[in-house]
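re the bet — no i am not wrong, look at it urself. input seq straight from the record:
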Amino acid sequence: IDRSCHVLYSKACKRQMQSKIALHYPPKQREAVWTKVQLQYADFLSDWRTDLGGSRNFHNGTGGSYDCIALMAYYAVCREVTSLEEIEEMEGNLILPAFRRMKFVDCNRPFFKKLMYQAFLNAKKQCDKWGDYQMEVAPFDPDGPIRYEFTRCPAADFAREHGLLEVMPALCNPDYTSMELIR
């Protein structure tokens, strides 16, 4: 892969994929399957957009855009032994630890509501900078909920281009749990 514009999936994502390969395949096949997943990942990136900022873009960290593509590569190679539930579990294992560490955050309390609203505005600013996600943040209302919405996602664009849209709910559903964790 062109490391000047792309990043490799995270170490945590690699561990997730390799653990599932170990679960589904006998020891003699595991290395060959892992090689196929890596080759599929490289093939997927060979013709994908090169303007997402590499490691400078915060959406490219653990559980982000490149991990989603890696999980799609895993799904494409291991489709006969995996499930969408397993993909959802893997994505949840990638993104939810950060939210579990924020167990003290309660977005129903004024201080945290304002803090998270500012975090959402910063995320939107980063999205606008990279042109990757299109994000809308609802105006702040001290008496109402805070909310944001992604109206475009590079992982969804990628899945659409590669005929993998069925994987998207598995990659997005952990987002609901993440918001529940910060109440």
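see?? The first strand starts at residue 134 and ends at 137. told u. also The beta strands are 134-137, 148-152. so pay up
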